[in-house]
Write a structure and sequence with these properties.
The complex is a heterodimer of chains A (471) and B (389). Chain A folds into four domains: 6-100, Uridine Diphospho-n-acetylenolpyruvylglucosamine Reductase, domain 2 (2-Layer Sandwich); 105-223, Uridine Diphospho-n-acetylenolpyruvylglucosamine Reductase, domain 3, CATH 3.30.465; 227-335, Alpha-Beta Plaits; 341-438, 2-Layer Sandwich (Alpha-Beta Plaits). Chain A is built from 16 helices and 19 strands. Chain A has helices at residues 6-20, 29-34, 58-71, 123-132, 149-154, 162-165, 200-204, 238-250, 263-272, 293-309, 321-332, 334-339, 357-370, 397-416, 435-438, 441-454; strands at residues 25-26, 51-53, 75-78, 95-98, 105-109, 114-118, 135-136, 172-179, 184-186, 212-220, 222-223, 227-235, 257-262, 283-291, 314-317, 344-347, 350-351, 374-380, 385-392. In chain A, strands 12, 13, 14, 15, 16, 17, 18 and 19 form an eight-stranded antiparallel beta sheet that branches. A five-stranded antiparallel beta sheet of chain A has the order 5-6-10-8-9. A four-stranded mixed beta sheet of chain A has the order 1-2-4-3. In chain A, strand 8 (172-179) and strand 9 form a beta hairpin. Chain A is globular and about 75 Å long. In chain A, 52% of the residues are buried. Chain B folds into three domains: 3-96, no CATH class; 111-277, Glutathione S-transferase Yfyf (Class Pi), Chain A, domain 2 (Up-down Bundle), CATH 1.20.1050; 283-388, 3-Layer(aba) Sandwich (Rossmann fold). Chain B contains 22 helices and eight strands. Chain B has helices spanning 7-11, 24-29, 36-47, 55-62, 69-73, 80-93, 99-108, 111-126, 129-135, 141-144, 172-178, 181-190, 207-210, 215-230, 242-254, 257-266, 273-279, 301-310, 330-333, 335-351, 362-374, 384-388; strands spanning 165-170, 195-199, 236-239, 270-272, 291-294, 316-317, 356-359, 380-383. The longest helix of chain B is centred in the last third of the chain and has 17 residues, at 335-351. Classes of the chains: A alpha+beta (471), B alpha/beta (389). The interface between A and B is medium-sized, with 39 and 27 residues.
Chain lengths: 471, 389
């Protein structure tokens, strides 16, 4: 809760009303409860914000921040509230700024192939918009139908197509950011190249709302691939699948997607949303190739023959658009399907060098067995990024303890293999206490100094990224 | 039935927020209270005694079109409709109610009162009072003209074909009190088919009560309607409204014991008029260019495929499969949001360059018209059954 007197509180409320109009301020307990959580199983406790504000412009956010700065009110920014790291939970109360109503496309420059948007725009909407005009914005987090550009930037998210095309950070050219003081800065330029001064743009990407609030962003776009096709290859062992992946890459084939799903995931998806997947194989590769018809055909044939070389038991190729859509829907429903198993799911997000993937998967199963947990694995195999989905019940204190121990072991293992504790979900609150294991000690010192530089009063998304005690 | 029975199901919401992508109310409002995730978080807090039932809670539960899109889509498989209705029922028991929604629902379900009201409606129809109102240039007259305009045509005496299928017809409130054009069309179409229409003195299907959480009255109506149906001898119970049909299909979930068995006995006979036309192999001489089809949210797969068959000779243009925004009393209770949803739907129809849009639900007609009027479009909206006629 904010430490202010009633009189001050009245004044603050009035000021917000003046900036936003009454209809864009939510203060009832009922409303505040709904903005106390995101999609992460953080805690059974409720951390209520004092205000939920829904601005529509950068200027309004600047005005809000001036007040927040003056009274040292904590501010948590939220897009669709769909992150996997507890990054939108307002642990210290204060203000939740919701960017959903900032959903305008500001400029679409087809000649220079750039787009400028407000950060409340939904990723999938922007993607569909540019694709209608023959261009392509590749980053595809699996919740892209609802998640916002702002969330994508703040959490430095990516997706399945990162293997070939890179993630959000690889497309952003310029940001408009409101700082804790209410100052508005522009970090980059509309141009494709820019070597002018420090690269502040990339500093804000992945800063999780702890340095400032990203309100507008400009992205570069690329031409849309002519066509795509999908191939599913099934393997009896993870090793065989891993060898096939390596061979595909060594043969200079670059699929747009190179994902892996394990047996439990396939079984769970098929049980709850049948899509004709085979379920008795240890590993399944989900491969998308793109390009013109000839390129696609050539890649499919090469991949097929490589998978056969490594004893693939079965290869399915999508033949129609419907089939492609169905298989993609199945792939994207992996988190949802696991959510049906137990009341809560945590989706972890380690990344290791690609060559360590099979060993990491093996260790994950051992850890699951050691702590008697239900863990299934989906991964972006091409990137060495993988998501163990842990299904459990947060209300069961003993089980939650086991989950926490398992997560710590998984993290340490990934670090041991030369990896990191997050590839695309970010640190948020749930991984904050492990950051020190995964970041160089001196680098961490400078990260904290950067945080202090931008946020002297410590009001920007408190208790995220760095390890703080929760009050 | 109480909310506590759904405690586990409510807790199961992982908060993934995917419902934001399918909820038409969220699309218009952009607030958590619209979407099922927000509602579940709130109800979960109530079940944990972190919050209490209040007018505000009810207001937020009422912010729902009952279109069922979120339930069909929910990765955790949570039945949002039932939970929202049960919360409303819990509140009603605690004296928290929305009279604006409950009062009309109870009136509609009061057969005696409605018979009385019908006399007035018929007077208005017969004396063309509506045209007189139009003289005063009522701003909403385009929409109001739809109401009360058409008279019930007397059924032809002769029976040209031999009747082998008995179809008990549930007319529903729109045919009874608003616009009987469907009823006329159905009778006309079935005249030359083996299907014979039987009528019975049904009450309202009860959906308005169910969606206001008034389970006690709803169950009474369910029992009454089941009894009315089973007194007749029939092969199918047919509906021209997808919402009424889906409500009848839900009866068995709400009542117990012997009556539940009766409801289950009725279930396999419940079909839409379009499924009946498919069963009797009705081949329409229907050829339309560029029509848009709006499937009501409550239309099930069987109904949709029957509709597709009937329209197989038409050139159907693609439109977004979104809600029309009417959803019964939602149109009146939350008119601003409703208009916005309708208008979005209309935009997609206009973009598709359709000559006309057909649907199979009387309430959707209102939603579609509302949107097209707002978008200043004169694309025609019609009932499929009238088009077939």
């Amino acid at each position: 809760m904010i430490k202010t007197t009633d009189k001050q509180e009245n004044k603050i409320t009035k000021a917000f009303e003046k900036i936003l109009g009454k209809e864009n301020i939510l203060t009832s307990k009922e409303d505040r409860i709904m903005y106390a959580t995101d999609s992460t199983a953080v805690s059974t406790d409720l951390y209520l914000p004092d205000y939920v504000l829904m601005p529509q412009t950068t200027q309004q956010i600047s005005e809000i921040m001036k007040i927040a700065y003056k009274y040292a009110i904590p501010v948590t920014t939220r897009g669709a509230g769909t992150n996997m790291a507890g990054a939108c939970v307002p642990f210290k109360g204060g203000i939740v700024i919701c960017t959903n109503k900032m959903n305008n496309i500001l400029d679409f420059d087809i000649q220079n192939q750039t787009i400028k948007v407000q950060t409340g725009v939904i990723v999938g909407d922007m993607q569909a918009f540019v694709e209608k005009n023959g261009l392509f914005y590749p980053p595809d987090p699996s919740n892209l139908k609802v998640s916002t550009i702002g969330g994508s930037l703040a959490m430095s998210s990516s997706g399945s197509r990162t293997f070939k095309y890179g993630g959000t950070k690889d497309y952003v050219l310029d940001l408009t950011v409101v700082l804790s003081t209410g100052e508005i800065i522009k970090t980059g330029s509309n141009t494709i190249k820019n070597a002018t001064g420090y690269n502040l743009t990339q500093l804000f990407v992945g800063s999780e709302g702890t340095l400032g609030i990203i309100t507008e962003a400009t992205f570069r776009l690329i031409p849309k691939p002519e066509n795509t096709n999908l191939l599913l290859a099934y393997f009896k062992t993870v090793d065989n699948a891993a060898n096939a992946i390596n061979s595909i890459i060594l043969n200079k084939i670059v699929p747009s997607v190179l994902d892996i799903m394990d047996e439990i995931t396939m079984k769970t998806i098929e049980k709850y949303a049948p899509a004709g997947l085979l379920t008795d194989n240890a590993a399944t590769l989900f491969i998308e190739v793109d390009g013109d018809e000839n390129a696609i055909e050539k890649q499919i044939q090469q991949i097929k023959s490589i998978c056969r070389d490594f004893n693939s038991t079965e290869i399915q190729i999508a033949s129609t658009e419907e089939e492609k859509t169905k298989l993609w829907a199945a792939r994207r429903s992996s988190f949802g399907a696991v959510a049906k198993l137990r009341p809560n799911v945590l989706s972890e997000d380690m990344v290791v060098p690609r060559s360590k993937m099979p060993m990491m998967i093996e260790r994950t199963y051992e850890i699951a067995e050691k702590y008697n947990l239900n863990i299934s694995i989906v991964g972006h195999a091409g990137d060495g990024n993988f998501h163990p989905h842990i299904a459990f019940d947060l209300r069961d204190k003993e089980e939650t303890q086991r989950v926490n121990k398992a997560i710590k072991e998984l993290f340490l293992q990934a670090i041991n293999f030369g990896g990191k504790i997050s590839g695309e979900h970010g640190i948020g609150s749930v991984k904050a206490k492990y950051l020190k294991y995964s970041v160089d000690t001196f680098a961490l010192k400078y990260m904290k100094q950067i945080k202090n530089l931008f946020d002297a009063k410590g009001i920007m998304n408190p208790n995220k990224v760095f390890d703080y005690e929760i009050e | 039935m109480k909310l506590n029975d759904y405690k586990e199901e409510i807790y199961k919401c992982s908060g993934c927020g995917q419902c934001q992508g399918v909820c038409p109310v969220y699309e218009a409002l952009k607030k958590e209270c619209a979407v099922s995730r927000g509602k579940f978080k709130l109800l979960n807090a109530i079940l944990n005694n972190d919050a209490k039932y209040s007018k505000k809670v009810l207001e937020y539960m009422d912010l729902c079109l009952h279109c069922n899109k979120c339930s069909l889509f929910c990765p955790s498989g949570i039945n949002a409709q039932k939970i929202i209705e049960t919360a409303q029922f819990d509140m009603l028991k605690n004296g928290i109610k929305n009279q604006k929604k409950l009062f009309p629902a109870r009136i509609l379900a009061n057969k005696k009162l409605m018979k009385f009201a019908k006399i007035f409606i018929d007077i208005i129809r017969n004396f063309k009072i509506l045209e007189m109102i139009n003289l005063f240039n009522c701003p909403n007259n385009k929409l109001s003209r739809y109401f009360l305009k058409i008279k019930v045509k007397p059924q032809a005496e002769k029976k040209p074909s031999a009747k082998t299928i008995k179809a008990l017809y549930f007319k529903g409130c729109i045919n009874n009190y608003v616009n009987p054009s469907n009823q006329n069309a159905i009778k006309n179409i079935l005249q030359n088919t083996p299907a014979e229409i039987i009528e019975a003195d049904f009450n309202c299907c009860g959906l308005p009560l169910k969606s206001a959480g008034d389970f006690e009255c709803f169950k009474e109506i369910a029992r009454e309607n089941i009894k009315t149906a089973l007194e007749k001898d029939f092969d199918y119970l047919i509906f021209d409204c997808a919402s009424c049909k889906s409500t009848f299909l839900s009866y068995a979930e709400y009542i117990d014991g012997k009556e539940k068995e009766k409801a289950e006995e009725l279930t396999p006979k419940i079909i839409s008029i379009y499924e009946l036309l498919d069963i009797i192999n009705y081949k329409p001489a229907l050829k339309c260019d560029k029509i848009a089809v709006h499937y009501p949210c409550h239309a099930d797969i069987k109904e949709k495929s029957a509709i597709k068959k009937l329209l197989s000779d038409c050139n159907i243009v693609e439109t977004e499969d979104t809600c029309c925004g009417a959803a019964g009393s939602f149109l009146f209770d939350n008119n601003k949001i409703s208009k916005e949803i309708s208008s979005k739907k209309a935009e997609s129809i206009i973009r598709s360059d359709a000559n006309c849009v057909v649907t199979t639900c009387p309430s959707c007609i209102l939603g579609l018209k509302q949107g097209l009027i707002k978008q200043k479009s004169d694309i025609e909206v019609c009932q499929l059954i009238e088009l077939l006629n």
